[in-house]
Amino acid sequence: MIADIIAWCLAAVPLALLIVLAIELLAGILARPARPAAPDSGRPRAAILMPAHDEAGGIAATIERLWPALDETISLMVIADNCTDDTARIARAAGATVLERHDTARRGKGHALAFGRDHLRGDPPDCVVVLDADCEIGRDDLRLLIDSAARSGRPVQSCYLLRSRPGDSAMTQISNFAFLIKNRVRQRGAASLGAPAILGGTGMAFPWTLMADAPLATSHLVEDLVLGIDFARRGHAPAYLEQATTWSDPASQKDTLTQRTRWEHGYIQTALRQGLPLFAEGIGRLRPGLAWFGLSLMVPPLALLMSASLAALSATIVLALIGASPVPALALALALALTALLLMLGWARDGRQAVSAATLARIPLYLAWKIPVYLRLARGGETRWVRTKRAGED
């Protein structure tokens, strides 16, 4: 009957996406991080490219934390990109090599990275590391990241996490937990399934042979994600290296919402365009890892997926009450319950330090807090790059 068809149409997409997410979560919970291979006897030369736009308030502290990791084989280059403050002067005073770029017509990190990459062509390193100006990576983790990229000949993404701080709001803490699920549990799960890693924009390393011709100079909202898709398609699938961690401090509650709006809109727009073609290409080329990459890409951010699934569940329950088959509602309810259970298991394994169980009880409020992000997406979405304020900035 018509009501049954409507119920299945409402349930089919969220049900399929929840199943994909559940498989990836289960794989991530059960998997153990792969042991990195022993480094070769030689130490590859690496250059760290650090794009910085109006980072005068924190660039000195970032360089100071990174300085112990630098030696004769690892150099740091700050690209002061369209700055209107003293970022360049402060970075030079802190000891970094600084390039200044002024081109307001072409804004965004991709253009800054291309500018820095082109400066390296005269004496190219073996490996290029991209590190944001508000991020931190330890000396041993940085060396492991460089060695892994140089040895494998592939892009390598470290485990990129947001550091929990005393006094963070409940919404910020839950957002940090969602970030951890995406960047640790799901990345680990995807790696165990043979899929490429998703590039996170920072804490990532590239062999020069790949970086030299990479399509960096774009103004895309999620240029790192698009770059990873390009590498995966060309047979250089990015690898995930959980043993190396890149840390960043979270933004304030208000600025976290701004930051997530930009990233999630760019992610969803890219997933809608690229997810199914990647899946079909993986099937057609007998590359199951690429096919799973396409499926994984189509899973929207957790808050959107859970909100949409709950809305679909409510609609299918109403239809069941007026005579439609209850099977779509039952299937969707079971998938939601399984996903929630796996998320709690992921929290028990990896997320206890990021967020407390009491704070997780506020997830319904978090879903409501994210509604403006998705309403804005429905009205057309964010299309321009907006710098997120750092902690302590007005």
UniProtKB/TrEMBL annotation:
SUPFAM superfamilies: Nucleotide-diphospho-sugar transferases. Keywords: Glycosyltransferase, Membrane, Transferase, Transmembrane, Transmembrane helix. The chain crosses the membrane at residues 302-322, 329-348, 354-375. InterPro entries: Nucleotide-diphossugar_trans. Belongs to the glycosyltransferase 2 family. This is Cellulose synthase/poly-beta-1,6-N-acetylglucosamine synthase-like glycosyltransferase. It comes from Sphingobium lignivorans.
